[in-house]
Amino acid sequence: MNQHFRNSNSERDVATLVHPYTNLAQHARTGPLTMVGGDGIYVIDDQGRRYLEGMAGLWSASLGFSEKRLADAAHHQLSTLPFYHLFNHRSTEPAIELAERLLAIAPKGLSKVLFANSGSEANDQAMKLVWYYHNAIGKPEKKKIISRWRGYHGVTVGAGSMTGLPANHALFDLPIKGILHTDTPSFYHFGQPHETEEQFVDRIVGNLESLIEKEGPETIAAFIAEPVNGSGGVIVPPKDYFAKVQEVLRKHDILFIVDEVITGFGRTGSMFGSETFDLKPDILTCAKALSASYLPISATIISEKIWQAMSAQSEKTGVFAHGVTYSGHPACAAVAVETLKIYEERDIIGHVREVGPHFQARLKALNELPLVGETRGVGLIGAVEIVEDKATKKAFDPARGIQPQIAKAAQDRGVLVRSIREAIAICPPLIIVKDEIDIIFDTLEASILEIAATL
User: Fold this and answer.
1) Spatial strand order in the sheet of 381-386
2) Left (φ > 0), alpha (ψ -120 to 50) or beta: where does 92 sit?
3) Per residue in 290-307, pLDDT tens?
4) Helix pair 68-80, 330-345: axis angle to 10 deg
5) What is d(CA 327, CA 95) in angstroms, rounded to the nearest whole number?
């Protein structure tokens, strides 16, 4: 028995599982942290230790880990109709109700819902619908999609191509042809010396328009963006960035796909990040908090003009030949319906607006610490940029693992946060209260000081 393994769960895990976003060789040496229970915003490992989940799992467990209403909704549906599909004119009541509820809260102009299982799939099918739409309206040359560096849209071949993170491309032969990338809207990282934030916005939006003109507007189908870049480092866009981007998109007749997989359902203090940043999507994708992550489900929500073109085209061909077996799975849809009911009944968005300023104030206070180059966030999402030199913004060599060391120090104190690129990300369940916010930031402060003292 390997002495590094603490228990049989570790041995079994290492013998059988491939772990996403993990150093596979290191994992074989150390084994996993195995969770066996949940209680509110806490999770419990197989040694009985409790951790405040400062990342809501994966930006997603919005209602925590012990919401009985969601478990009951799943049980009821599984006991009534455990599975049925939406192919060939079939339907189920949970899928119908969920689509109705989504359209009632979605940004204006969105008209129909296509379900899938994950954010990656929601974005992948958004790409396919963009292509389908332009073929249907007689513009087959209008197919290229522009994403942004540091954008994250998933890991399927299509969504992984739109993702703007080098690790998601390296060795996977991505991106595929026709996917372009433009600037990250981070003034901290990419602003030039003596450049104001306004000048930075004008420059990168100008770069976007230059890219469109260089490629030919008649070839550009869509632009995809998260309201706040999540896995790219929690990049909050500068003032007027999206207003100027949308002006360029309208000018060149380019569809706007808004990826709300992380920002949807209250995270930024509005139902959708589109409201927070005044975005007008032609397609909106969502997942994660759609079901509070109790069961896997995602949605791609499309505008009326896209729906009309799709409908007319399917009349010509006899079928809209796209869909997945579990699209609108009745149990997943039932849990998502109950999740949306809870958001409304408990005024979760009002709660985020109440505690969000305290979260952001505690986040901002970390700017005074050593190693902290910048803090940034909105609502109940934020990041702490860790740097070797505050004045020059010089980042640590990734091989030194400073950010993972800080995250591990926090874990040892009972709080889970996430190391992403040069930053530490925080994205707790939306039900968190002020005292629990203080636990997160007291712990993070102590962890940063601990690692700083070792350097």
Assistant:
1) 372-378, 381-386, 423-426, 418-420
2) beta
3) 999 999 999 999 999 999
4) 150
5) 9
Query: How much is the mean pLDDT over the chain?
Result: 96
Contacts of 423 (CB under 8 A, 6+ apart): 233, 234, 383, 384, 385, 386, 403
Token reading at 327: 């699209």
Contacts for 204 with CB less than 8 Å, ≥ 6 apart:
182, 183, 185, 190, 241
Nearest to 159 by CA among 183, 124, 206, 191: 124
CA distances from 201 to 238, 263, 275 (A): 7, 22, 20
Q: How far is CA 25 from CA 10, 59, 445, in A?
A: 14, 26, 30
pLDDT exceeds cutoff 80 at 7 = no
The residue among 224, 229, 238, 152 whose CA lies nearest residue 191 is 238
- Separation CA 368–CA 269 (nearest Å): 26
Output DSSP code: residue 373: E
- Sequence-separated (6 or more) residues with CB below 8 Å from residue 114: 125, 129, 299, 300, 301, 302, 323, 327
Average pLDDT over residues 382-396: 96
305 close to 139: Cβ distance less than 8 angstroms: no
Q: Measure the CA angle with vertex 115, ends 336 and 301; round to 5°.
A: 95
What whole-number distance in Å separates Cα of residue 185 and Cα of residue 236?
Answer: 8
Residue 376 phi/psi, 5-degree rounding, is -155, 150
Contacts of 60 (CB under 8 A, 6+ apart): 262, 287, 288, 289, 292, 293
371/385 Cα distance (integer angstroms): 8
pLDDT at 8: 85
pLDDT of residue 447: 98
Residues 6+ apart with CB under 8 A from 254: 146, 212, 217, 220, 221, 222, 223, 248
What is the chain's Cα-based Rg?
A: 22
Note the pLDDT of residue 3.
47
pTM for this predicted structure: 0.95
Stretch 336-342: mean pLDDT: 98
For residue 279, what are the β-bridge partners?
Answer: none
- DSSP 8-class letter at 240: T
Separation of alpha carbons 71 and 436, rounded Å:
24
| DSSP classification of residue 400 | G
Q: Which residues contact 167 (CB under 8 A, 6 or more apart)?
A: none
- CA–CA distances in Å: residue 267 to residues 94, 157, 228, 353, 378: 24, 27, 10, 10, 8
**In the 8-state DSSP scheme, what is residue 396?**
P
Strand order across the beta sheet in which 298-303 lies: 110-116, 298-303, 283-286, 255-259, 220-225, 144-148, 179-182
